[in-house]
């Protein structure tokens, strides 16, 4: 029972012009817990998608050897049949179905198309026992917490006789207690002979659980570290992850001059009547002219909700408190009012609510400021092309023309188009929500450079980010949020990752 | 050789757009051959276009409704009901035509806006809201025609909207002169707009197609307009229905492609959340699109009532589905954000051409439905396939 259960040899994968994976070699031994580490956009998820057949055989170069045989998965169900299961960050459960229905969704216990519910429930109970989850199988998924939902996902994987379990940042949304339970379960599964690949950003977890750890950077595997040889330590991992000094990642801004407050929020609360709770509570913050203010915090700490409640409140929260823009009180009825007042908001979810994916670059760039290319309601097509080309060039968007459909661009280029849309509005204050999520290191650097340039032109920026390095590297001042409240404010000179995390987990 | 290459690549890139026109051409050609030229006779084409009118205006409005990811099933009986109200106003209340038409059109807008409020503000799915509207209008139509049955309209000028032709001024060699003049004016305006668009592009230093392709295109389109004008001038000339249909198409084409409002409509259709975050008032756009649908339903009702010279108890039956089919045949996407007004007009003409051609050939009504259904399915399959290929 030893040797390699999985060998991925010379895997290369390209997306329209962007190399996502370049000659990746990745080997996993039977029965180990192998962590896969790297920055966002390093290629971890792409590699796992190649493995699981999301990208079918033939769309990538290289070989996958699983259980001693070369595999050519053409769809996800092929890899499932071979015994590979992936659990993604966004759980793929049906919230309105019961636990047992979810565990066997797509894999029903049946005889000639008729489901045997009694056996389904009995089997589900057995699987729940395996993952040590003590809930009634009749419970609806939406009534469970995220931690327990994760366990249901694992139970689902186990029900398919999984040999290799892949977890994509399983603890990202979990609290400490749930995280520890999950890690404990993984150790237990390892004893039962299940091999596990875990993608994680949390180095402490990696150090505590990994038998081996492979570091990826810029679409390549950099090294594989072995715990039994004592190679896995925070400093070694970080050095390999980053591959360069912090100074190179975050471009310097030489002359910092701050003016008056461009935005001030006083005792600001936002109540979400659908959730029945406050998403932001008694928030006080201000942004000065020429300043980059970072807002750090964990997922679900209310950062996005706070930003949207300021930006014309599209979700219709019940608001309380005062909002001052450029020295005068403001009350926005609609996002268009906020835009008129000089605020722009670049969403964290560019595909979901940021871009018009089926439209071309030029329509996206001008969407928030059509009056800039029209007179008396009639659009000047040529002016539009000209403007779009200007932004395409100044933001380094890599695309053959501004007629390119945005849905076909890479994440980094989409983000730049999204940014271009808001720069064309000519805002005084730019709110960037996770501006570099899911984009590669090169594009990140370009976005940071653009941010600095905008600041030097007199703009102010609020940057919401979950990447502590980015918050520390780019901000002038940092607010830390947790549970909808501002838990702390730090000048960057005094801020450290530890201090921020302390506030964020209060 | 170079010219051929450029033309080929242009066709390749725009195959989706041209597909509709090619399909229409093929259908017309096949029927013309099968009927020994009877299909392309002036009389038949004139009739065919008149028959298309009241569905075509609905298809135009429906295009925008589907683009913003909604549907309106109430338009058929809404048209029938408003046509009946028009008939009652004129023949029973004695309201003159020049007041009746605007009253009905405004009534249409109000009805459409009401649908818009139900959908956008109350949050009822448009399928359900408009299904309710369909039942209500059907009942309302029956109610107002209950006593008298068919309501005859005797206003000549009103009926002319459905069956009348523009005055001829003079006749030369059996051709309708004013129609000829109209055709020449349209060609002139078309050529002028092409030249000015090209000049503008050059002013911006943008790439333009080569001179020979440009000339070829201008001459080709001009010839087609000239040919259609020639055929129509051979039998009474342009009808008022066709003039109205062309006018509505021109206005909506301009609105949807050249204006801020049009952009907002397509933005809402391709991603409502992103539209909202871009400062676009999604509710307002929904009101406007449903309001315009109501306006065009009223217009459709007027055209249909005028065409029959009367309002009947069954007016408007299945209009909504014909309009929806025309829109889909014309390349509108159910996923939202995609679809052209001109495409839907061509779609409507394709559907009527099929009926007209099959009628001339004496094909039974049972086969007609099946063939039209097949064409609808084929059009959507073509649409899906070409979209995939592009991706």
TrEMBL record, chain A:
<dbReference type="InterPro" id="IPR027417">
    <property type="entry name" value="P-loop_NTPase"/>
</dbReference>
<keyword id="KW-0813">Transport</keyword>
<dbReference type="InterPro" id="IPR003593">
    <property type="entry name" value="AAA+_ATPase"/>
</dbReference>
<dbReference type="InterPro" id="IPR003439">
    <property type="entry name" value="ABC_transporter-like_ATP-bd"/>
</dbReference>
<dbReference type="GO" id="GO:0005524">
    <property type="term" value="F:ATP binding"/>
</dbReference>
<dbReference type="Pfam" id="PF00005">
    <property type="entry name" value="ABC_tran"/>
</dbReference>
<keyword id="KW-0067">ATP-binding</keyword>
<keyword id="KW-0547">Nucleotide-binding</keyword>
<feature type="domain" description="ABC transporter">
    <location>
        <begin position="263"/>
        <end position="504"/>
    </location>
</feature>
<protein>
    <submittedName>
        <fullName>ATP-binding cassette domain-containing protein</fullName>
    </submittedName>
</protein>
<feature type="domain" description="ABC transporter">
    <location>
        <begin position="6"/>
        <end position="243"/>
    </location>
</feature>
<keyword id="KW-0677">Repeat</keyword>
<keyword id="KW-1003">Cell membrane</keyword>
<dbReference type="InterPro" id="IPR050107">
    <property type="entry name" value="ABC_carbohydrate_import_ATPase"/>
</dbReference>
<dbReference type="GO" id="GO:0016887">
    <property type="term" value="F:ATP hydrolysis activity"/>
</dbReference>
<dbReference type="GO" id="GO:0005886">
    <property type="term" value="C:plasma membrane"/>
</dbReference>
<keyword id="KW-0762">Sugar transport</keyword>
<keyword id="KW-0472">Membrane</keyword>
<dbReference type="InterPro" id="IPR017871">
    <property type="entry name" value="ABC_transporter-like_CS"/>
</dbReference>
<keyword id="KW-1278">Translocase</keyword>
TrEMBL record, chain B:
<dbReference type="GO" id="GO:0022857">
    <property type="term" value="F:transmembrane transporter activity"/>
</dbReference>
<feature type="transmembrane region" description="Helical">
    <location>
        <begin position="213"/>
        <end position="232"/>
    </location>
</feature>
<keyword id="KW-0812">Transmembrane</keyword>
<keyword id="KW-0997">Cell inner membrane</keyword>
<feature type="transmembrane region" description="Helical">
    <location>
        <begin position="238"/>
        <end position="255"/>
    </location>
</feature>
<keyword id="KW-0762">Sugar transport</keyword>
<dbReference type="Pfam" id="PF02653">
    <property type="entry name" value="BPD_transp_2"/>
</dbReference>
<feature type="transmembrane region" description="Helical">
    <location>
        <begin position="20"/>
        <end position="40"/>
    </location>
</feature>
<keyword id="KW-0813">Transport</keyword>
<feature type="transmembrane region" description="Helical">
    <location>
        <begin position="52"/>
        <end position="71"/>
    </location>
</feature>
<comment type="function">
    <text>Part of the binding-protein-dependent transport system for D-xylose. Probably responsible for the translocation of the substrate across the membrane.</text>
</comment>
<feature type="transmembrane region" description="Helical">
    <location>
        <begin position="369"/>
        <end position="386"/>
    </location>
</feature>
<feature type="transmembrane region" description="Helical">
    <location>
        <begin position="318"/>
        <end position="338"/>
    </location>
</feature>
<feature type="transmembrane region" description="Helical">
    <location>
        <begin position="77"/>
        <end position="110"/>
    </location>
</feature>
<keyword id="KW-1003">Cell membrane</keyword>
<keyword id="KW-1133">Transmembrane helix</keyword>
<feature type="transmembrane region" description="Helical">
    <location>
        <begin position="117"/>
        <end position="137"/>
    </location>
</feature>
<dbReference type="GO" id="GO:0005886">
    <property type="term" value="C:plasma membrane"/>
</dbReference>
<protein>
    <recommendedName>
        <fullName>Xylose transport system permease protein XylH</fullName>
    </recommendedName>
</protein>
<dbReference type="InterPro" id="IPR001851">
    <property type="entry name" value="ABC_transp_permease"/>
</dbReference>
<feature type="transmembrane region" description="Helical">
    <location>
        <begin position="173"/>
        <end position="192"/>
    </location>
</feature>
<feature type="transmembrane region" description="Helical">
    <location>
        <begin position="285"/>
        <end position="306"/>
    </location>
</feature>
